[in-house]
Amino acid sequence: MNILERFHKGDRMALSKVISYVENQSPDYRRILSQLYPKAGKAYRVGFTGPPGVGKSTIVDKLTSLLVKNNQRVGIIAVDPTSPFTGGALLGDRIRMQDLTSQKGVFIRSMATRGSYGGLATTTKEVALVMDAFGKDFILIETVGVGQVELDVVNACDTTVVVLVPESGDSIQAMKAGLMEIADIFVVNKSDREGANRIVSELDMILDVRRKKGEWEYPIISTEAVNNKRIDLLLSNISEHKEFIINNHIFEKHRKSQIKSDIKKIIELKIRELIGEKILTSLNLDEMAEKVFRGEGDPYSAGERILDDINISNSA
Question: Which residues pair with 201 in a beta bridge?
């Protein structure tokens, strides 16, 4: 029995191996994804992002337990900063969520960003596709909390949750054009701390403009995830947002946009591979760099000549 046969029979070890194959972009990984694609498309993807230390992992942990109680199968992708030495996931969210691994229907995978600057690892969407094809009902994606604008989470998820804490109030205005613009739901975690009411009020004021533009209310939920407080309310709001985007045809439009983006990404990667192979096999970049350094030309003209050579070769 090959690995895909075991995968389709629900073998968790096969799932893990297929994910590793895809994450490492091993030979023929695109062929595997192509075979799995018809089985995917049923899982609902929820992204969690926000500054570091706000408790995203705890929220995902508690939310998963609640989903499991509702007989939902959950896949978790926890994207960690990359270790500069090994290229592997550094924080190991699975350690923090280890209690979940014993729960039926839950599969957790930590992924390293490996130099990706948008908050998601390069193959996050592909790994989500694999989990989807395996039969997960929900896929929860926790992004790297390094403070940058993680806009690519929008293109990977159906609902985006931005998690803040009372101390985030000082940076709300700075975040306004970034994380503030991508959220469907806001969570103020650790809401037992001083300043929680203030940040909720500030968020309300900022969101008034967005609320007037559409029918979605962009809810703000105050949680104490460590004590499991109001996680049920968060799940209710996620369910309401899912219903809202489906009924208003936003879900269909968004999924089509994601597919368009995926096709574009695949083409770009293939072109890079082809150009990279061409440069490595037929061009002496060291010699070109030496000439430019000596003042015999410039990098822009050199780049144009390379592209011309590739075009001539491809048309021959």
Answer: none
Crossing angle of helices 12-23 and 124-134, in 10° steps, is 160
pLDDT band at 49 (very low <50, low <70, confident <90, very high): confident
One-character DSSP codes across 45-94:
EEEEE-STTS-HHHHHHHHHHHHHHTT--EEEEEEEPBPTTT-SBSS-HH
Report the alpha-carbon distance of residue 15 to residue 28 in Å, rounded.
16
Identify whether the C-beta of residue 64 lies closer than 8 Å to the C-beta of residue 157: no
User: Nearest to residue 212, comparing CAs of 220, 221, 204?
Assistant: 204
Task: Go through the domains of the chain in sequence order and give each one's CATH number.
Answer: 40-247 (3.40.50.300), 261-315 (no CATH)
| 41: phi then psi, degrees, rounded to nearest 5 | 110, -5
Instruction: Categorize the per-residue pLDDT at 70 as very low, low, confident or very high, splitting at 50, 70 and 90.
Output: very high
- Render pLDDT for 3-26 as a digit per residue (tens, 0 to 9): 999 999 999 999 999 999 998 888
**Higher pLDDT, residue 277 or 166:** 166
Measured distance CA(128)–CA(141) in Å, rounded: 9
Cα→Cα distances 223→50, 115, 202, Å: 15, 32, 17
Burial grade of 316 (CB within 10 A; 0-12, 13-18, 19 or more)? exposed
Q: Note the pLDDT of residue 143.
A: 84
